[in-house]
Design goal:
This is Adenylate isopentenyltransferase. It holds the Pfam family IPPT. The protein is of the alpha/beta class. It is built from ten helices and six strands. It has a domain of about 220 residues: P-loop containing nucleotide triphosphate hydrolases (Rossmann fold, 3-Layer(aba) Sandwich). A six-stranded parallel beta sheet has the order 3-2-4-1-5-6, sandwiched between helices. The chain is globular. The N terminus is likely disordered.
């Protein structure tokens, strides 16, 4: 079983660029986009009427069941989604606002096809970043269509990602894109789906330690080379959504001073210092992102959303031992898997089973 936390190597080690990772097709052809004007932001179905007879005979359809896996970046949501996806008849809908775009697969940390273990993924790498930014309203529309498609085939939709604004927009009964619920506006507890929320939580100091090491791993996998090619071929200004992905603005400053095409030159102290500063900023910004995401989750929970927390802290502690062990590696891996299954997978399985039996 492949660990989601590979061994760490120096981020200054160059590596070959990975091949492009194709992603599942959307439910319909994504033509050049424009905001979904005219799309109803509430979940009402059927006609409305002032007639008491019409109201009396109108019955709202039963809500579709969905499972939503939430948590800060790097907390293990993807691993848990695959574990659950291979245990239930289900398909995954990505709710990470950077992973919806095509390109920068390493930088945005998309799950490779071989790690999906045959579980179908929706809205993963399907939008052209040059067609404009995907906002909460458009995600509500497209993810809603994906849910309807999955449910129509009698499968369970798993919504997976750290973008809480997307999750909120998707599940609330009436969505107003003008209101910022994470900036002070009231959060509705009226949902258009029957939701099972699983919150994967990890102690923030431990998570930040892991995230810093994950940045090194991504660089070792070819993140710098991927960004180099991206800046060589694209103008980030033409990609208003994807240019916000952590790694792009930090290296934008680097490439302005050291443009693509000059990478063959010997790295002097100034260039190496600029590279290391970009990496430092990526690590700091990733940890700040995790902190903000946890804050948003706490806000949703505090306003009445029934988020069921599973604590992955000890599992992460064991995983960190695996990556630093010089001996007894297989024994440490076995221990890590045991703790993950005990603390995260088994409680999540029980939560989903109870939800489906309701």
């Amino acid at each position: 079983m492949r660990l989601p936390f590979p061994n760490i190597h120096s981020h200054c080690t160059s590596s070959q660029i990975l091949p492009s990772i194709p992603c599942s097709s959307p439910l319909f052809k994504l033509a050049p986009r424009r905001p979904p004007l005219g799309v109803r932001m509430d979940s009402s179905t059927g006609p409305t009427s002032s007639s008491s007879t019409s109201v009396h005979h109108y019955h709202r359809r039963q809500k579709d069941k969905i499972v939503v896996i939430m948590g800060a970046t790097g907390c293990g949501k993807t691993k848990l989604s695959i574990d659950l996806g291979t245990s239930f008849q289900s398909e995954i809908i990505n709710s990470d606002k950077m992973q919806v775009y095509r390109g920068l697969d390493i930088t945005t940390n998309k799950i490779p096809i071989h790690d999906r273990l045959g579980v179908v993924h929706h809205l993963l790498g399907v939008f052209d970043p040059e067609d404009g930014e995907v906002g909460p309203s458009e995600f509500r529309l497209t993810a809603g269509l994906a849910i309807s498609d999955i449910v129509s085939r009698q499968k369970l939709p798993l919504i997976v990602g750290g973008s809480n604004s997307f999750i909120h927009a998707l599940v609330v009964d009436r969505f107003n894109p003008e209101l910022d619920v994470f900036g002070g506006a009231s959060v509705s507890t009226q949902l258009r789906y029957k939701c099972c929320f699983i919150w994967v939580d990890v102690s923030l100091p431990l998570l930040c330690d892991y995230l810093c090491k994950r940045v090194d791993e991504m660089l070792d996998l070819g993140m710098f080379e991927e960004l180099l090619e991206h800046f060589r071929r694209k103008d980030p200004a033409n990609q208003p959504g994807l240019r916000k992905a952590i790694g792009v603005p930090e290296f934008d400053r680097y490439f302005k001073n050291h443009p693509p095409g000059t990478e063959g030159r010997e790295w002097g102290e100034v260039r190496r210092g600029a590279y290391e500063e970009a990496v430092r900023e990526i690590k700091e910004n990733t940890c700040q992102l995790a902190k903000r995401q946890i804050g948003k989750i706490m806000r949703l929970k505090g306003t009445g959303w029934d988020l069921q927390r599973v604590d992955a802290t000890e599992a992460f502690m064991e995983a960190m031992k695996v990556r630093t062990a010089s001996s007894n590696i297989e024994k440490n891996k076995k221990r890590w898997m045991e703790v993950w299954e005990r603390d995260v997978l088994e409680p999540s399985m029980k939560i989903v089973n109870r939800f489906l039996e309701e």
